[in-house]
Amino acid sequence: MLANKTAVVTGSTSGIGLACARAFAEEGANVVINGLGDADEIEATRAAIENDFGVRCIYSAANMLKPDEIATMIQNAENELGSVDILVNNAGIQHVSPVDEFPIDKWDAIIAINLTSAFHSTRAALPGMKKRGWGRIINTASAHALVASPYKAAYVAAKHGIAGLTKTVALEVAEQGITVNAICPAYVWTPLVEKQIPDTAKARGITEEEVKRDVLLKAQPTKKFVTVEQVAGFAVFLCTDTASSITGSILPIDAGWTAQ
Ligand code: NAD
Q: Secretion signal: which residues (predicted)?
């Protein structure tokens, strides 16, 4: 379905991004993976995508804190793979702390990685998409683009911000064959969630087991974590022709969270 297309997925060395990169490759797209991590592990991840799906996969080490590296990532993808047809702005980090104790550097990094990086990559990728008259931009937002939770001021602000960016860009390119959507998962079991459990326990004065049961899954009526495969499958659907009228939408995959 996606043969002859190229997908760039930021933050795809683990978690949701990696599942998206693999799902696009399974549909025949060439992919650019990006993110932090151990060089040997990243190379193994990259090679596995090529071997498993018979597509080209290149790695970009672009740091989502650095606008020039983001622009270069898009430029290199166009030069080496011919185009950027699908862009998934997915890189993200979290920090959990009461707002009056929230470290300023953490606020700045979360806004830069979870929100501003999507502006830079979108800005760089759109001219090529416009020229070809086809594009898909998928921003990994969160249920926290729709509702808030305490102690996550920067994350919730960034995710609400990306919802606004999504709607604005969707309107700007609506007549040009390009859709722009935000996908909003509830809790997905990935390193990002695992790492916030100790700080959440500290901020709320409860045990780590209680965090899982009484904080994370409390919000999810299904009482199950969303899986990375479910999120990736939805991202692939947004790249089909069937989904071409879905644009500017903030789309929950939230196990019933925001129905409450
Ligand atoms: P993850 O920690 O598994 O993956 C995050 C990715 O971002 C990694 O590849 C990491 O290397 C990359 N990254 C972090 N900082 C970076 C930087 N400066 N430059 C480049 N890459 C960087 O987490 P995940 O849960 O898969 O999260 C992916 C996205 O999904 C995030 O935007 C997150 O906010 C969102 N999300 C996650 C959940 C969840 O419950 N896991 C729920 C809703 C939304």
A: none
* Closest residue CA from atom 23 of ligand 1: 192
Residue pLDDT, tens place only, 68-90: 999 999 999 999 999 999 999 99
Find the CATH number of the domain harbouring 241: 3.40.50.720
11 Cβ below 6 A of ligand 1? yes
Is 198 a domain residue?
A: no
DSSP symbol at 225: P
Domain count, the chain: 1
Catalytic residues: 155
| ipTM value greater than 0.95 | yes
Nearest CA owner, ligand 1 atom 8: 11
Instruction: Quote the ligand 1 centre to 161 CA distance (angstroms).
Output: 16
Is the Cβ–Cβ distance between 116 and 159 less than 8 Å? no
Instruction: Enter the pTM of the model.
Output: 0.97
Q: Work out the end-to-end distance of the chain between its first and last CA atoms, rounded to an integer number of angstroms.
A: 36
Q: Is 126 in the pocket of ligand 1 (CB under 6 A)?
A: no
* Closest ligand 1 atom, residue 226 Cα: 40
C-alpha 222/C-alpha 8 separation (Å) is 32
